Amino acid sequence: METVAKRLYEGMFLVDSAQATADWEGTLSVINTILQRADAEVVSLRKWQERKLAYDIDRTSRGTYILCYFKVDGRRISGIEKDVLLSEKVMRALILTTEKRPAEMIERDIKGEPIAKPPELPGAPEGAPEPRTFRGPRTLADNDDDTGRMER
To answer: Which end of the chain, N or C, is less surrounded by CB atoms within 10 Å?
Structure first.
């Protein structure tokens, strides 16, 4: 039997907020079951956020995001995605590899610590032109005289 190296993955699972509130343990159990079927080792599983969705999914307007870190053989990811599609509780899922993320960011995510505010960007150099702004489409109200010419 061959030894398979398990890699660390980050999974974001979206569930209906009403169902998650009514049965939180059952919701976590569904995600755990999906991962166990793929022989995944769960490192961290926690509620990330609850928010209004950009568009309704199955007549649902609010969703709860569950962040999960787990170790699994990369060949098993497609099985996890298929199980998510068949699940009635999980509306969407996104699974990413963590190999390019800094270890300290992953540790903060696992612990649930907020991400530090990014540093301020330096201002424009001296003598640089002001950035242009969009003023919107021109209308007849922009006429500068009675000739009908547009103001520039």
So the answer is: N
**CA gap 21, 149 in Å, rounded:** 61
Beta-sheet strand order (sheet of 41-57): 41-57, 60-72, 7-16, 90-97
Reduced to 3 states, what is the DSSP secondary structure of residue 49?
A: strand
Residues 10, 95 contacting (CB under 8 angstroms): yes
Domains in the chain, start-ordered, CATH in brackets? Answer: 7-111 (3.30.70.60)
Give, in order, the Cα–Cα distances in Å from 44 to each of 1, 3, 71, 104, 128: 28, 24, 10, 15, 48
Structure tokens at 135: 């003023």
Output b/e per residue, 34-63; b: 16+ Cβ within 10 A.
bbeebebebeebeeeeeeeeeeeeeeeeeb
The residues pairing with 142 across neighbouring beta strands, listed in sequence order, are none
Largest Cα span, the chain: 88
| pTM score | 0.70
Beta bridge partners, 11, equal: 68, 95
Q: Note the pLDDT tens digit of each residue in 54-111.
A: 999 989 999 999 999 999 999 999 999 999 999 999 999 999 998 888 888 888 888 8
